[in-house]
Amino acid sequence: MKEVQEIFNTIQARQKEQKTIRGMYRDVLANSQEYQSILEELEVLKTKKRKTLEALKMDLRSEMDELDKIKSDIDSEKELLSHATLSKLIKGEQLEIVDENNNKYEPIFSVRFKKF
Q: How confident is the model at residue 64, as a pLDDT?
């Protein structure tokens, strides 16, 4: 099995290759008249869509406020669930959650590296 540093170096090299190819692709797109024309049309349509959505949201203002509150509540509950799960796992307890359809869930954790 490869060492962690060796795997990391391989990932870094592949990411550099990926960045180079993406740069070439962006250059080709930037020099394409047809693509630039389509982008301009798209921007006009996006603006029109944005104005329409805002008008519709104003008609449903109280429902949209409730939707924002529900989203915030769900995010808080998910964070609480993560903390409670981690706490139980640290204590060595097994944990399994079942939804209303009898689907079983088990916690999954991942490891990521952050540059410091």
A: 94
Phi, psi angles (nearest 5°) of residue 66: -65, -40
The token pair at 16 is: 């550099």
Q: What is the pLDDT of residue 68?
A: 96
Cα separations (Å) of 114 from 2, 9, 72, 108, 111? Answer: 21, 15, 27, 19, 10
104: alpha, beta or left, given left = phi > 0 and alpha = psi -120 to 50?
beta
Mean pLDDT by 10 residues, the chain (116 residues): 88 97 98 98 98 94 96 96 91 91 90 87
Question: How many Cα neighbours within 13 Å face the side chain of 15?
Answer: 6
Q: How far is CA 106 from the centre of its chain?
A: 21
What tokens does 33 get? 């008249």
